[in-house]
Specification:
Blueprint lengths: L11 H14 L2 H8 L2 E5 L4 H6 L10 E4 L17 E5 H11 L4 H16 L4 H7 L5
Parallel strand pairs: 1-3
Antiparallel strand pairs: 2-3
C-alpha cells in the first residue's frame, strides 16, 4: 500500500506538463498546429462557460476547446482571439479518482486529444465514431 501522507494533488503546472507531454508525442503534422493553441489550466470552468454549455456541475467538464477549427479558418476573416484549450484541474482529478482504472497522464492526454480533435475540425460525433473512451 502506498503512503500518501506526504503527497499532494497535482497542481495546475503539473497538469499542464502532462498536456505538453502529450503534444510532444504527436506526429509532427499534428504537433505543429497543436503547439499553436494556447493551453490554460484552471480549477473549474467559469459560470459563463458552464451556462453556455448548459452544464450545472463544474465537475462534469474536464476540458474545452475555445476557438475556430482549422477547417473553418480563413485569411480573410482574422480571429480576434487565440485558439485555446482549457483544462479543468479539479474535474480531471475528480474523474481520475472516480474511474480508478487509468493513470492521470493517460486521462489528461485523452482530454487533450479530444480537445485537439475539435481544433482540427472534428465534431463530437466524429470523435465518438473512433473513440470509445467515455463509454
Amino acid at each position: 500500500m502506498s503512503d500518501w501522507t506526504d503527497r499532494t494533488a497535482p497542481d495546475a503546472a503539473e497538469i499542464e506538463a502532462l498536456a505538453q507531454k502529450l503534444i510532444a508525442t504527436l506526429p509532427e503534422a499534428f504537433a505543429a498546429p497543436a503547439r499553436e493553441v494556447v493551453l490554460r489550466v484552471e480549477e473549474f470552468a467559469d459560470e459563463e462557460m458552464l451556462d453556455e454549455l448548459q452544464i450545472d456541475d463544474p465537475l462534469e467538464l474536464t476540458g474545452i476547446y475555445d476557438g475556430v477549427p482549422m477547417t473553418e479558418k480563413s485569411a480573410s476573416h482574422p480571429q480576434a482571439f487565440a485558439d485555446t484549450i482549457w483544462l479543468f484541474r479539479r474535474a480531471i482529478l475528480d474523474e481520475w479518482a472516480e474511474r480508478g482504472d487509468v493513470t492521470l497522464s493517460d486521462l489528461v492526454g485523452h482530454v487533450m486529444v479530444h480537445e485537439l480533435a475539435h481544433h482540427f475540425g472534428w465534431s463530437d460525433e466524429d470523435i465518438a465514431k473512433i473513440d470509445r473512451w467515455w463509454e
